[in-house]
UniProtKB/TrEMBL annotation:
PANTHER family: MACROLIDE-EFFLUX PROTEIN, MAJOR FACILITATOR SUPERFAMILY (MFS) PROFILE DOMAIN-CONTAINING PROTEIN. One of its GO terms (cellular component) is plasma membrane. It is a multi-pass membrane protein. Residues 12-426 form the Major facilitator superfamily (MFS) profile domain. This is Major facilitator superfamily transporter. One of its GO terms (molecular function) is transmembrane transporter activity.
Amino acid sequence: MKERVAVPGMRPLLIVWLGQMVSLIGSGITGFALGVWVYQQTGSATQFALIAVSSVLPSVLLSPVAGALVDRWNHRRTMILSSIGAALNASMLASLLAVGWLDIWHIYVVAAIASTLTAFQWPAYIAATTLLVPKQHLGRAGGMLQMGQAIAQLAAPAIGSLLLEFIQLQGVVLFELAAYFFAITALLSVRFPITKPSPSGKTEKSSLLREVAYGWSYLTSQSGLLGLLIFFAASNFLSGIVGILFGPLVLSFSSSVVLGVLLSIAGAGTLIGSVVMSIWGGPQRRMHAVFTAMLLCGVCILVTGSGTYIPMLGAAIFLFFFCSSVLNICTQVIFQKKVEPSVQGRIFALRGTITSASLPFAYLIAGPLADFVFEPLMLPDGPLAETLGQFIGVGRGRGIGLMFMIVGALTIMVTAIAYQYPRLRLVEDELPDAIPDDLAPSLSE
C-alpha cells in the first residue's frame, strides 16, 4: 500500500460531508414517507411509533460492538460498505413496492436494517473526521456535521411530503437510492487517513469482546471524560422529556399550524447554531461553553412551561435548540481531542449508546407522568389550582407546563452540581490532547 502525507485543510471533509448530508436527506425523506404510508394504511399511532423504535433500537444495541469493529476496520471502507448496504436495503424496498408485495412488517425490517448500518456508519464518520482535518478545525468540523443533520431534519419532511404527492412512495425510494450513490461517489473521491493503533489498543486485539470491554475501561480510566458523558446523558434525558411533550403542550392551547411553525423555529435554531460553530469553531475553553449552554437550556425550558404566549415560546425554543447545538458540538470536539484516534470508534459508539438509551427511558416516563400525575394537579379543581395555578394557569396542558418548569429547574441544578466536579470542569486542562498539533496523517489508497 502506498502512503503519502496529507495536506491539512477542510476540502476532504467538505466532500465527504456533502455526500453524507445528501444521504441523510434521502434517508430522512424515505423515513418520513414510510411513516405517512404506514399511518394511512393502518390509522394506528402504535404501528407508526414502532417504525421509530425499529429505527433506533438496533443501533443502540449494536453500537458498542460496532464501535470496536470500526476501530479494527478502515473507516472509509466501512462508510462505503455501509452506504452500499443502505442502497441494497432501499433496492429491496423498491422491489417490494414494484411487485405490490410491501406489507407493514417489511417496513420494520427495512428500518431495523438501516439502523444496524447506521451503528457502523456514524462512529466511522466521526472517527475519520478527527484525522481528516487539522486539530484546530475540529470545532468547525463538528459544526458542519451538526449542520448536515439540521439541514436534513428541516428538509426531509418538506421535500418528502412534496415527493410523496407527485411521484408516490416508489419514486421517493428511488430518490433515496440516488442519494446513496452520490454519497458513495463522494467517499470514493477522498482518501482517508490511516489510523495507527495505540500501544494499549494493540494489547486488546486478541478478541472482539475484549476490545469492547477496553472501550469502557478506557473511558472509566478518564474520570473527566466519564463525567462529561454522564453530564451529556443527563442533558439528553431531560431534553427527551421536553421533546416528547412539546407537541402536546402546544396543542393544548393552540393549533397544529402553530406547532409546525414552532418546530420550524426549533430547526432553524439548530441550523443557525451549527452554521455559527462551523464558521467560528467555538471558544478555546469549550467546557465553559458546555456549562453556559446547558444553563441557558434550563432557563429556556422553564420559560417554555411558564406560559402560553406564542412569541415567547418561539424565542425560548429557538434559543434552546441553538444552545443544544453548541453543547453537542463542543462535547464532541472535547472527546475527539482527548481520545486516542485508534479507539475513537469504540468511544463514540459507547457514547452514542449511553446517551441514546436515555431517550427511550425519558419517553416512557414522560407520558404517564403528564397524564396521571401533573395534568390532574393543574385541573381547575386540582390540588394546585389555587396556588401554582394563579401563576401559570389551570386547565389542559398546564400540568405539562409545570413539568417543563420542573425539568428546567432540574437542568439548572444538574449544571450547577456538575460544575462543582473539578475533573469535569478542568477536563481540558488535566487531560492531554491525543492529537498532536503537527499531525500529518498518511492516507490509504
